[in-house]
Amino acid sequence: MAKTPLLLIPGLLCSPRLYAAQVTALKDRAEIVVADWRKAPLAIWDSWESAARWIVEQMPPGKFAMAGLSLGGMLAVEIMQFAADRVTKLALLDTGMRSQNETERAIRRARIRLANEGHFELVLGLQMSRFIPAYRLPDKALVGEVMAMCNEIGVDIYKRQEELAAIRADRRPDLPRIKCPTVVVCGRDDAATPLFLSEEMAKAIPAAALVVIEQCGHLVTMEKPEETNEILKLWLDR
Question: For residue 193, what are the domain limits?
Fold first, then answer.
């Protein structure tokens, strides 16, 4: 049986390490490409469209399934604006489609200032409280893996990602135009993109199913890899 071409899009501060468990679990079903921000010119972060088009350029010609987490999910929906005819299935993991209000933009820009002033490790510490629930912070293996991933991305890419995230458009009006089979996945305890954002996406997309992973925060692929793998296998097999 032919394998499904599958594009996996990491989120903010996320390297391909975000999807390590999925690459292993899905390799018999899919020909997987994971976008790697470290291989892209910083100029892709000049606009949402330029970042989205760079991602699509990583795929061979033809149709593909696509999954994105957090910023990666936002970019996946950006790709749907110009390449929906190529996308056979869509998975939106721990993400949201709203624009940022002034308070949210100010918080992002404060983190950028900290990074500019040489306090990137402090920024990463602040992000851990958004990425990982407090009850999982004693899990040294998980925290170590997430920190290693963030350090792989580094400060320069991080700042450009934050700048772009601060000016994102509200894509909720575009969601009803998504016609391909879609799964929306969220950790019950996601502090970065709370569950209500996934609920409103699933309600707006005609062919969407919502799956909530219990006892899990923002990084479902790393916190609950087995559950996430099973969800994605069912999605690919639909």
Answer: 4-100+163-237
User: pLDDT tens-digit profile of 88-98?
Assistant: 999 999 999 99
How buried is residue 97: exposed, middle or buried, by Cβ count under 10 Å (0-12/13-18/19+)? buried
Domain count, the chain: 1
- Indicate which CATH number applies to the domain containing 93: 3.40.50.1820
The 10s digit of each residue's pLDDT in 132-158 is: 999 999 999 999 999 999 999 999 999
Percentage above 90 pLDDT, the chain: 98
β-strand partners of 91: 67, 183
Q: Is residue 219 part of a domain?
A: yes
Q: Can you list the positions of beta strands (E) in the chain?
A: 4-9, 30-34, 64-69, 87-93, 182-187, 208-213
